């Protein structure tokens, strides 16, 4: 894809995907933080009620998110970019609502089907990209359809997985349950929106305050890093049901969170070191020599993986204790610090300024997470 589009057009596509991802956060009205803990011990009837109502809430929020995205794009983007945003943004309608099945799989510590599905969807996306590349097309919109296809395949696949495991589907609506989920999910809602805007702020501000070339090389480096950092959330949420959510003794749960944090830090460090050694070769092989300037960007950016893994583990404490306000505070802290760095450094240092903002933001989240952990440990010690 990057080879076909070139650096600037690839940067435009990745900026659009970042914009879509930021607005898709509006659909996180009932996130995994709310769904996974009760699903751990739910009966089949309770599971259907939880997933069905969560699906309805997320789908309604997804429609709102897509409309908000279209309004923003119509006002802030030129007409050519608006069409690209409109097509790419359709993926919002398939992503989060069907992901309730992922929450159920996480509650059962069974992420293997989801991983296989993601790999299959990736192969399909690659196949479509290869076809477009061989046909020598330069249309960004056609390449954007590859991402839309990926979202649709995963949505259908999740339904198939759930039906195969449970012999039915979960489409269900009950006003009382929906309102209860909305009430529980709403406090986490602000934190999730802020988190996603922070995670996409770098690419959005690069396009606004630098140029498409710098956006393109930074996006290429981030694209290579993303599969590695995505392991953090999958791993922590898979460990959480058994080692944390099922633990009724607060001291044991806190001890397990500490051990998981140490383990995640080590895993992140090992993965970052391995990626640092091989990243240049992979970038050159997949993206081509036009993207060679992305190699030093990746070599710096990959070390943020250590912070991402650490934060993912520390966040389990806030989910366990249902500290929605603390999650929001943490991401506000990250957004504010990274925002200041982005505004200060990107106009002069371009992609390296974006790296600084991204890493400093995650330093802020880990610092906040460690503070909350130490506070909780002190409280438990005083109670004893």
Description:
The structure is a single chain. With 384 residues, the protein is mainly α. It folds into two domains: 1-173, no CATH class; 203-384, no CATH class. It contains 15 helices and no strands. Helix 11 (250-287) packs antiparallel against helix 12. The model has no long low-confidence stretch (mean pLDDT 86).
Compact summary:
The protein is mainly alpha-helical and 384 residues long. The protein has 15 helices and no strands.
Give a quick set of tags describing it.
single chain; 384 residues; 15 helices
Characterize the overall form.
globular
The number of strands is 0
How far do the termini sit from each other? Answer: 58 Å
Give unreliable regions as ranges. none
In which range does the helix fraction lie?
Answer: over 70%
Biggest β-sheet description:
none
- H and E string: HHHHHHHHHHHHHHH
- The Cα radius of gyration reads 21 Å
Number of helices: 15
Question: Secondary-structure map with pairings?
Answer:
Layout: H1 2-24, H2 32-39, H3 44-76, H4 79-89, H5 92-95, H6 100-107, H7 112-134, H8 140-166, H9 175-209, H10 212-245, H11 250-287, H12 294-301, H13 304-320, H14 324-349, H15 351-383
Helix pairs in contact: 1-3, 1-4, 1-8, 1-9, 1-10, 2-6, 3-4, 3-9, 4-8, 7-8, 9-14, 9-15, 10-11, 10-12, 10-13, 11-12, 11-13, 11-15, 13-15, 14-15
């Amino acid at each position: 894809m990057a080879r076909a589009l070139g650096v600037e057009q690839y940067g435009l596509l990745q900026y659009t995907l970042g914009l879509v991802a930021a607005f898709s956060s509006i659909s996180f009205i009932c996130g995994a933080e709310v769904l996974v803990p009760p699903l751990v011990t739910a009966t089949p009837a309770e599971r259907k009620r939880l997933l069905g109502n969560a699906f309805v809430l997320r789908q309604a929020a997804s429609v709102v998110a897509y409309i908000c995205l279209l309004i923003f794009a119509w006002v802030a983007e030129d007409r050519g970019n608006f069409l690209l945003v409109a097509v790419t943004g359709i993926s919002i309608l398939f992503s989060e609502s069907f992901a309730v099945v992922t929450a159920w799989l996480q509650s059962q510590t069974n992420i293997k089907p989801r991983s296989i599905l993601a790999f299959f969807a990736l192969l399909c996306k690659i196949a479509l990209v290869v076809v477009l590349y061989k046909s020598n097309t330069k249309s960004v919109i056609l390449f954007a359809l590859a991402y839309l296809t990926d979202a649709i395949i995963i949505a259908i696949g999740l339904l198939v997985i759930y039906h195969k495991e449970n012999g039915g589907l979960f489409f269900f609506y009950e006003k009382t349950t929906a309102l209860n989920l909305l009430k529980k999910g709403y406090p986490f809602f602000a934190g999730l929106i802020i988190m996603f805007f922070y995670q996409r702020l770098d690419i959005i501000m690069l396009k606004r305050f630098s140029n498409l070339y710098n956006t393109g090389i930074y996006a290429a480096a981030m694209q290579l890093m993303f599969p590695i950092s995505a392991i953090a959330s999958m791993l922590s949420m898979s460990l959480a049901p058994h080692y944390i959510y099922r633990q009724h003794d607060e001291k044991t749960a806190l001890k397990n969170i500490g051990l998981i944090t140490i383990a995640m830090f080590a895993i992140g460090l090992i993965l970052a070191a391995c990626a640092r050694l091989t990243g240049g070769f992979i970038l050159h092989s997949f993206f081509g020599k036009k993207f060679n300037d992305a190699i030093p960007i990746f070599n710096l950016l990959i070390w943020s993986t250590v912070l991402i893994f650490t934060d993912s583990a520390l966040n389990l404490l806030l989910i366990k204790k249902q500290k929605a306000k603390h999650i929001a505070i943490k991401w506000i802290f990250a957004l504010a610090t990274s925002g200041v760095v982005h505004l200060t450094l990107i106009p002069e240092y371009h992609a390296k300024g974006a790296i600084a903002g991204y890493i400093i933001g995650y330093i802020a989240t880990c610092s906040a997470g460690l503070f909350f952990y130490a506070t909780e440990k002190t409280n438990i010690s005083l109670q004893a």
